[in-house]
Amino acid sequence: MMSESKDIEDAILENANNGNMLDFEAKIFLDIVRTDGLVIAAKGVNLDLVILNILKVYQDPGNLVIILNSTESEQRFFKEKLNYQHIYSEHQNGNEREEEYLCGGLHFLSTRILVVDLLKKRIPTDKITGMIVLRAHRIFESCNEAFALRLYRQNNQSGFVKAFSNSAQSFTMGFCHVDRVMRALFVNQLYIWPRFHLLICDCLKKYQPQVIELHIPITDLMKKIQTYILELMNLTVKELKKLNPPLEMQDVTVENCITKNFHKILQAELNMVWHQLSNKSCQLIAELKTLRHLLLLLFYTDSVTFYSNLLEYRKPEYARNTQWVLNNSAELLFKDSTKLVFTEDREFNPQFCPKWEALMELLKVEIPAEISRSKNENNTILILCSNNRTCHQLNMLLGSGPQHYLVFLALKNKIQFKRLSQAFKDCHMTIEETRKEDQYNELNKNIQYNDENAFSKEEDENTKFESTYILTMNDPIKDSSTDACNDQIFTPVADGDSINLKDISKTVCSPTILIQTFKGGENYISLQTTLEALNPNFLIMYHSNVTAIRDIEMYEAHNKNPGKLKTYVLIHAGTVEEQSYLTLLRREKEAFEFLIQTKAQMVIPSDQDGKNAQCITLQKPLDSSEKNTRQGGQVTAVEKSFVIVDMREFRSDLPSLIHKRGIDIEPLTITVGDYILTNDICVERKSISDLIQSLNSGRLYQQCTQMQRYYSKPMLLIEFEQNGSFSWQNQYMLSEDSNNFDIQQKLLLLTIHFPKLKIIWSPSPYATAQLFEELKQGKEEPTIENALAIGCDQDLDIIETKYNSSIYDFMQKLPGITTKNIHQILRNGINLGEIIKQSEGDLDCLFNNSIDARAFHSALHQSCIPEKNDRKEEFKQKKSNFGRGKLKRSRNI
Asked: Where in this chain does the record put each ERCC4 domain (predicted)?
């Protein structure tokens, strides 16, 4: 048996092209191929090669494999690596997808398309070989991915499910999050691969990259500004915790505030109680985000950009509603930030970013010297940044020089100064060019404003940042004694977007400088694939990034050519930049330690994989079958309950929760309503934001008009969020000139205009699913043909041509008028005046229903004025006389 399993593994590895995989990747591959499960790896430990080899194993027309949660760049990557054989992407036409499913192979689908195709039986569910789920940390009980997997497992107990994730911290948020994700995925095994795993350490240690870490000190003025901002953040955090003592806010600290995922920490801590926070607490959280933004600007941008952004927070419009601006540390912050840009006599002399000098020295001295020693003909230098704005900044810096760039920024941000300092004496031409450009842009704006045929305006320059910039060195060798910041030897490449980055060494003269973000271009799924495509000789990390460093390690381990790529890391030692990097490492390590401990204590049912009928997750609620005593106690068959759901509603969680309660879903493209429960009940679902938008635009009025025309029981469902407040509070209207009462007034007018419209208030999608089940009890099932026919253009034309639409809508609002008798009344009744004159008996013949006729006749002829009560009038008279007597006595006194 051992030899047979060994032979099978060897055959799988041979088919998967094991030569490109490292030892730990081969181990992950064999584990996940042998047994279904969830793989959680550290950031930067890319699983792309493992997933690619799994796809190679099942790349055959005899298999039908579905891949979920893949991005467009990942789809392009896998298609290119697999030579586009037996690979299909989703099509808008359902018939084309149905034919492609029968061809087998690999199918990249969106979750919404897959759910609809599973419900419509377009895909042969029992013939599916398996499903591969990427980004498994996004799976939760009510999401569409869990819905698709539940539909898959209900009809297929033999296929596989393999899930992957690179976000360990996401599994630590919430109670038993890993257990719930594995239950939704129908897997029993959990594979954990942190960076400190022994096998990963051994594989990456053999080919360690050549890394030179440059610790760049910041100026004394920047240290003071950093201290002021940290003091303000510390005071804000203390005040926030003081105002909310019952809340557990251990993770809301100054250390976590400077990390990249701070907004996720806030969301996890405060999302459940956000509606219970006071306005002051919400304002403190907003101030905390503002201070964090200033701290990032201090280290990731230049002095002019930081100063111009700081001035915005000193304006009276912002300062009157905040607390940190009035603090002593804030006053010192505003005072010292001026010294970053001006001298004492208001002379423009901004400080350079400390990393600029180190970057220029590398590009003009260190790297050219390495190129001359190596004597390589084709040399590529890759500079990595954290965002597109920094890429644009470095492109402008290398193309025009730091002095011209800072003067250009000052003029763009309209910073006023008396004169330029001696160091910026050569920038007068930049001032004139910028002023001419501003005048030209202002003229274009006026022309576009006056021209009626101008349909579009030019975008703001700030929105034109690209993710890749290309430059070349004109004179690569420079003497180290020259000032690195003053010489300009870099030329931007025109039409850089049209150049294929893989062939850049053949297209552009060497040496070439590429400036990119850590994510690279749109065609690359990770930095590792970017490095494999570009094959650079030198790499400069302008910002520190944990994932990028591990991508470089993975690239060197796969390349097996240590020393070819030389990496320089620029980091401000002893600052919040270094602390943020160390905090991310610590939090990831703690997350993996938590997962390892959870796995050791986890109790997983043997039937959780859904491959047998005893799985609790797949069991539907029992049908309440009734016994008929007249047929000898035989059980009568209960008709299958189903709900017609509009195709656009599959973006929400409600269809999944309805199906989980044992009610089948019939997806259709309907024009009236979102959910058809019966032939009489039509429901239009609105979230709070959608409700406000629909009321303001008038779209809800049209939708209610259509529902009342064709259904006797139209309903408007107002659904709140699962973790939000089930109350109408001020947080829904953010603007000061808006009022919640305006929305309530519009809702009141809606109910007056549509008296048959029922408004349902639901606290969550779970409550909505239960409510739908209760509304359907004891009622007939909806008819698919009627739902498709209602609201079509032909039906609307009949109403417009046969009847007066205003009279039609008015008659619908009267008691006794239903969708079943309105056409008969409008055809047989001459006009409204003649119908009013008829007696109740005549109306009974016209309505063919005595109850509806009595309701209609009573509404028109019965007096609605209440009868006078003599006792009440007498009591009111005595009360008024008593008041007059008391008044007379008080006057006499």
From this structure: 642-722
